[in-house]
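User: Predict the full complex structure for these chains.
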Amino acid sequence: MERLPKRQRHQELSRLLEENPFLTDRELTRLLKVSIQTIRLDRLELAIPELRERLKLMAERSHDSVRSLPLHEVIGDIVDLQLDKSGISLFEMNEEHVFSRSGIARGHHVFAQANSLAVAVINDEIALTASADIRFVRPVKLGEKCIAKAYVRSSGGQKAKVEVFTYVGEEMVFQGNFVIYRSAAESKT
Amino acid sequence: MERLPKRQRHQELSRLLEENPFLTDRELTRLLKVSIQTIRLDRLELAIPELRERLKLMAERSHDSVRSLPLHEVIGDIVDLQLDKSGISLFEMNEEHVFSRSGIARGHHVFAQANSLAVAVINDEIALTASADIRFVRPVKLGEKCIAKAYVRSSGGQKAKVEVFTYVGEEMVFQGNFVIYRSAAESKT
DNA sequence: CTCTTTTTGGTACCTGGTAATAAAGGCTAC
DNA sequence: GTAGCCTTTATTACCAGGTACCAAAAAGAG
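Assistant: Here is the predicted structure of the four-chain assembly.
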């Protein structure tokens, strides 16, 4: 058995669910052409919860409105969030985000998604961006779906370091290192 | 059997679910002290969907809402522009730009003003942010007027370096070094 | 050609329901 | 009284979308 197919399938599975978290295992068997048991093993390996749990998580996030994310002001759609650890958000570039001339996204929209995620992932009353070092790897074009992944690298004390990578499909389009100030109170994790 | 208890129960049921839509029928039997069948008949009468449907609806709403936000073409009013030299823009923070909790502006709005200006100041068909190194010196609060000043430090070749300082009054609140890609030499096409 | 990993298949069980049907409780009308 | 009616409760069958586990087949790797 080639090592690739499995990893490719895992990537594909993650991508599909990031794009559309409403897919059941049965629908995934159709999309990936493997048995339902394989899908379930894959989800297990990738630590992706079942459909109902995913929906519940989404519902909870939108319901709470407490926590560090007033959802309406967040750029992008946060589909996974492990406070103080990591997070994933989706954002699709459409007309209002791009230069009309070239169809290329304005940098600050790409930044906004990454920044929103970096702030959201910090489990604190108040979290503010202190500084950032960012790189636009390749232009993002109209219609492209950006998947931003944030990883908290260090969160001791008042400053947390968060690394964010933004992808379009497999391709990295943006990378940023954020330093986030936190209100200091509840750091325990 | 009193006619009232039923209507009262219906009201109570609606109230409970509005307050906490995550309640299962079983939990409701405990709260209302009737059988689970009664709860289900009540939900039927009141046209309240089952728990899973409620969660799904909430998840769907949170999924396709967020995408849009008031980030239009250029952030800030450009009041002075000397192409390839310098520029100034103004931007006032209001409710939609700040964390409702703290009244502090979200970093990406401050960044967006600076980024817009850095791109605008470059005299070329196409100008894109390649990378940036930014620092939020102090938080910007609701109602504050930000004055961003951009200076082109070097513009030879395909990359231009632009330095942006943002002030509220005399106070510097943000500073960034941008590297901007330009489509070619300024004299071309 | 073995040995291990991966994939598939199947069963039992769980949650939070729907749907249908029957039975019991309570109240009114005659 | 008791018949009629609504409300409530109980029972059973069924479903979706899983989990958990076991066994066997398929596919590589050595």
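Chain B has two domains: 4-64, 77-182.
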